Amino acid sequence: MNAMLIDSTRCVGCRACQIACKSWNELPSEKTQFFAGKGYQNPKDLSATTWTLITYNETKRRGRFDWVFGKRQCMHCLLPACATACPVTALKKTPEGPVVYDSSICLGCRYCQLACPFDVPRFEWDKVFTKITKCTMCADRVAEGMEPACCKACPTDAIVFGERSKLLAEAHARIDANPLNYVHHVFGEKEMGGTCVLHLSDVPHQELGHAGGLSEEPASAYSRPAMASIPFVLTGLGIGLGAVSWVVNRRQQLAAQQKEIERLHEIAEQAEGKEPGGTNS
Amino acid sequence: MTDFFKRTSSGLLVLYALAAFGLLLIVYRFVMGLGAVTNLSDSYPWGLWIGVDVLAGIALASGGFVVAGTVHLFGANKYHSLTRTAITTAFLGYLIFIFGLIVDLGRPWNLWRALFNWNHTSPMFEVAWCVMLYTSVLLMEFLPPVFERFKLTALHEKWKTMVPWAIVFILGIFTFAMTDSLIWTVVVVFVLLFWELVFRAGLSPRSIQMPLLMIIAGVMFSTMHQSSLGTLFTLAPHKLHPLWYSPMLPVLFLLSAVMVAPAMVIFESIVAERSLGHRAHMNVLSSLGRAMPWLLGIYLVVKVGDLLARGAVSDALSISWQSFSWWGEVLLGVVLPFTLFLSQDLVQKRVGLLTAAALVVLGLVWNRVNVAVVGMIDLEGDVYFPYWAEIFITLGLISLGILGYRLASLHLPLHEEETAATH
Amino acid sequence: MNLTRRGFLGATGAGVLGIAVGVLGLTKAAGASRRKTFKTAETKESSTICPYCGVGCGLIVSTRDGKLVNIEGDPDHPINEGALCSKGMSLFQVAQNERRLQTVRYRAPGSDKWEEKSWDWALTEIAKRIKKTRDATFKAKDGVRLVNRTEGLACLGGAALDNEEAYLYSKLARSLGVTWLEHQARI
Amino acid sequence: MTSHWIDMIHADVAMVMGSNVVENHPVAAKWLARAKERGSLILNVDPRYTRTSSFADHYCQFRSGTDVAFVNGMINYALEHDYIQREYVVNYTNASFIINPDIGFHDGLFSGYDEAKRKYDAATWQYEMGADGMPLRDLTLQHPRCVYQLMKRHFSRYDVDTVCSITGAPREDYLKICRNYTSTWAPDRVGTWLYAMGTTQHTNGTQNIRTYAILQLLLGNVGLAGGGVNALRGESNVQGSTDFGLLFHILPGYNPSPLAAEQGLAAYNAANTPTSKDPKSANWWGNRPKYVVSMLKAWYGDHATAANDFGYDFLPKRDGDYSHISLFEAMYEGRIQGLILLGQNPAVGGPNSLKERAALEKLEWMVAVDLWQTETSTFWRRPGTDPASVQTEVFLLPACSSVEKEGSVINSGRWAQWRYKALEPVGESASDLWILDSLFKKLRAEYAQGGALPEAITKLNWDYGTPEQPDRHQEPDVHRVAREINGYFTRDTTIDDKGTPKSFKKGDQVPGFPMLQADGSTASGNWLYCNSYTGPEPKDNKLARRDGKDAANEIGLYPNWAWSWPMNRRILYNRASVDPAGRPWNPKKWVIRWNETEKKWEGDVPDGPWPPGEKHPFIMRADGHAALWAATLKDGPLPEFYEPLESPQHNLMSSVQVNPAIKLWHKSNPELNPVGEEATYPIIGTTYRVSEHWQAGAMTRNLPWLAELVPDAFVEMSQALANQRGIVNGDRVQVVTARGAMDVYALVTNRFQPFRVDGRLVHEVGVVWHFGWEGIVKGDSANVLTSHVGDANTMIPEYKAFLCDVRKITGGVA
Lengths: 281, 423, 187, 814
Known about the structure:
The complex is a heterotetramer of chains A (about 280), B (about 425), C (about 190) and D (about 800). Chain A contains 8 helices and 9 strands. Chain A is of the alpha+beta class and about 280 residues long. Chain A has a domain at about 80-135 and about 215-275: 2-Layer Sandwich (Alpha-Beta Plaits), CATH 3.30.70. A 3-stranded mixed β-sheet of chain A has the order 8-1-9. Chain A starts with a strand and ends in a 10-residue tail after the last helix. Chain B has about 425 residues and is mostly helical. In chain B, α5 packs across α13 and α13 packs antiparallel against α14. The longest helix of chain B is centred in the C-terminal third of the chain and has 29 residues, at about 280-310. Among the domains of chain D are: about 5-235, Dimethylsulfoxide Reductase, domain 2 (3-Layer(aba) Sandwich); about 240-310 and about 485-535, no CATH class; about 665-810, Barwin-like endoglucanases (Beta Barrel). In chain D, about 25% of the residues lie in helices and about 15% in strands. A 6-stranded mixed β-barrel of chain D has the order 24-30-25-27-26-31. In chain D, α4 crosses α8 (about 170-180) and α14 crosses α16 (about 355-360). Classes of the chains: A alpha+beta (about 280), B mainly alpha (about 425), C alpha+beta (about 190), D alpha/beta (about 800). Chains C and D meet through β2, β3, α2, α3 and β5 of C and α2, α11, α14, β12 and β13 of D. β5 of chain C pairs antiparallel with β14 of chain D.
């Protein structure tokens, strides 16, 4: 399975990747003013027309001022929350690695946006024939044996494309070779069950704008208990409700029968000239 | 407020105006896109419409299944007079909700795709199927008054024989879609068929008036649906505030939906009686009111217990907009009505009942808005507040619902005295 | 590191460009399986050098039927190996940009607007202006010294020209006797 | 650059000073990153923490304009600790040369200074000559007047404390830079020095570079792989436009443009052709007459004959300075009537641009050739100007882009590379080649009817295959131009090539500049490019080569990729990469080496074919040695620190406040040339670029993608200064100098920190200068703030250090 290794210690914040993404995917520019985020960041966030974004973060590392750059984009999870969430499989994980989107079946419910722990899928709010958009890992290029556009454009090899297992080994090799120069955590190795985009950094990944506090379970683990209970609930309700209504009806039937019997008795008693009992009202 | 409709027809005019304006805005939305009429954004993909129109709307339509279930399955015949209004409300509620959903969906023309592109892992898939199928069931439940009104006796009879089979089919398909398992499908179908045969064999004519399988299916779908709306949010632990995020969300959603059902019936009945002139049976409503502390209490215990179990109490005790909103939902919407309903005096009085029921309804809506909107707000980023057009579309949809109910009330034999009259 | 893009692409020393047909320098391997729907399938690829800074990165311009399809880094170029910066990556929008000048424009003295003109008119008029200024300010001698310089005419620019253009500019300006000859290297 | 981009990978230590390489040459970072991966250290010295600083291993801040002090201190550190590559210094530099006995230095001034003229007489700076006409040397470096001893004395004044006090560099950071960089003195350790406009755009610009060169020579880092003094060129072909002499002072190939005093070719040659009595001196410039005559032959063809000095008289003869600032001062005075601009935008990029914009109004006519509407071409409707009051005629000609034409550009590492035409020009736009050719045709027609010295034009050798009447659809043959640049034989010729006669036919391409002749038998538009196009066919165009195979030394020279001047040499001064016996100083990364068995050099094309030791390695210098001591400069033979023209600090080194040899325009041309004082303008200002925009901005501010990334001009400042002025990030502020003011956004950042200078706190801010009133994104240029004052030697403006104030804009809505 293909993956991308993004090493922020090599990123120089030049944003060739941002433009490469727009160029290959033919995305228009956004109207911006000054800077929308920290440092030189523009636009403000990922959007329908910005599928990858460099963040600029002033921080301290080992007591000294540091300026570090992060790259946000779709993480291409192994078991993606968006694909778990999508009611119609418009978002799908491909065996090649990319999580791809098919607008022809999408309902536009935007549940994928809600579900994605990395805040990735975007919606074209200003269009009538609107779509969900996000980084595709350049699935079209990958299918042609090429690397993603951002990866190719990167001048400092901060983005590397390849087989996930190899990249993971490479990531750990880099940490091992330079233990002082990295936080010992490959972001994406385990997050949300693992992703096909792996990040290395010399500051905590959250400082680069990556989501923190993520589970190692894939997103489907959150909804699985409820989803798995469906057949039990259905069967249980079917048996229970049927039984209850049968019992209730049976009881009512019996009561009604009893009533009927009593009524018949009364009639019979009346016919026999007896007075009715005083307890019934 | 209570005699809003009675006093003047201007109330009705306002409803028509709101509905018309809402529809106009909806047209505009389909010409200009969602961005033009909402403040929704990539940070807040779901807003007022999901919170109110969908989550609260569906919960408030729970009267249909709760009352129908209570009356027809549990044999609480004293509430029989309420079933038709409750079912009608639910049916209209669902229609409006589907309409609202189409407005909210980005690509509603693809809705039919849900029938063919199955994703068993998706809570939204479950929701979509529940919406479709439960609305079908509600339609079945809704039809008898229509048959009566138009004297379609033959059709009514046909309906009675066809419904059970339709129900078995629908639930079978649903089970298969949800589980992707033939075995489970066979199990569920078998259970249903079993009961149908049992019922056919030995139930009183009175009970068979509403096919029991239909009522059972209504309860099953509602249970699934109400809870699945909660399941939706289980996928968003990283976004939903810990005050609301819980693996128990499906249960909480279901419990609160059950809890709000009687309150909604009380509320509706008392409000509607003033405008439509139908006098609700006070003793029926009072007895509903007496059930309320139980329902509220169970919900409160589970909700607070869940909060304690998750260790999120500190969030409730911290000072923030979210904790404020949480306390509002709990105190005003659950604790206060709980104490009010406990008062025997109050439960006997219309104003008291109305007040307490309204608080429960308010609390439910508040809870759903909290989950869909308030709990999602990240105060460090953009803060979502609905755009005016969003609010007016919601108001328009609600107005449409009320007008629809009014229409049904005026033209269909929904109320006990009328049903009695037709017999 | 054995995961460089050149290694990955397996495309080194690819053949002549300017006429090559292929997918961004991938003239070999992926060719057979290429689907027609792919963005740069069956395009003409021309190599070029980035017009921005002095690094001299290579790019490949893909065109189809004379229309621009894509521009990205030349993976065979030894300096950039396919990589670019944000500016180089934007070259597409230089080649395809509605803001580009498309006609000759003229602004008359005191006017507040442009007028569109033909090339022939403009070149003829400019030649006349140059001649008038040159003839009026030409200094053949400064005292006894032969200087043959034109003092009223200045020429600026050149850092964005091709070598051949810069050469002709230099040659032309000197033949006119221009001494006010400067370009971006001075500033 | 003395080396080339890929070569950075071989540096053990890379020093980035006066350049923001990562932002302005991001792809260069590829090779620095790979160097880093191999364990190399990247050092960065800059007034502000940039994307380069973030990339670097060690960063040291220092105050703008104090470069000389900073590096002089490093030189002193190297000399004090004897961190010098002695064998290299003794053999390859002029350290051992003995200087005139009258040499002196006192209170910031070298001997020979004339205060009235603000000029030095360099007579006392010259070598002391022996009876044999050769300079006297002391190879032990002990003679008190040898360059080495003079340097030791001179640089000893730049001790660490003094330097840190002047520059504001934190002492620990400074020492870290000194220690790490001077570690490259070891013969097999190499350091590269990368600089750009942060170095040159100062009144001390040339001396800034001198400090780098001196340090690099002392450490033995020039000529080796991973070494050199590398100017990073900011434009795709600013190297080429300089090679082709688009500057007032040089003809193509760095031959000086003739002075009025140089009457006749003989006088020119006498003045500009160096001589040496040293048999080991290659004295390459001794060949200058061949190059000049060949150029004249290319220009005037058959009209260039020995009898008419090959048309030398047709060339304009200059007096004095015609540089950019002078040009605009003359324009402002009304001395220039017509201006032709090919892709330059001085209304944004020129210093003191308010004055330069005003000067444009004095023109009768302007011709601007560009891809875009630039601020210069619309200066008549700039904000605050009534077009009716501007009488200048403007012709704006649409040029096509680089992918719509064919031709070559030469990068900063001197790789001349061919570009192909991929698209037809948009609309009616045309290549500059066509525009120049067509304009010349029109001019020739005009001058056929007479005028001032018409022969200079009518006799010009100009035929590139187009009709006399310009036709928009007929491009000049760019290959014909390229072949003329390379050069061809004008008649059948036999040349003696080291004993073997070589015969050429008339019209044959000249194979290389060693074959160029001073007798008119060869024509070559630019001798440096002789060897670039050696046959009649496009396949002989070496600029278009695309062979990615490396040379035998495998150091990334790629000798068959494109072509590099001179003679495809990839690393200049490579004879200094070997010891006098021809053995590489650094055998692991050898550039050239002598093959004893085959008696030839291997690796890169060597600086001349001679066996090791036969010639001194610095062949372009008459004495054959690299110049630690430079007697040809206008402001001193050794770098001495002076403050920028505008500075908040008095010079701690001497009583001479500013460079004594600079022209003081505010004195000679006071109008619109005010100079600010610290009392009013207490903050240091500097200007720079961002990665996302390019130069004056037309090429980027018109592109939506780049406009998105950086949509507005901004000033960067420290949190401390912002607090002091009540400014928060994103505020609109006004930056103001004695010359102008601009409204910009404030970017408050920890990347700027105030400096502790001479015991007190000094603030600095930086403004991007890319913006103007045209384009998708607009703003003003930081050059409304900068001044008309230039370097003593080059007249490059002092953009990088001035005095300003920053004020929050209150009241009005931004």
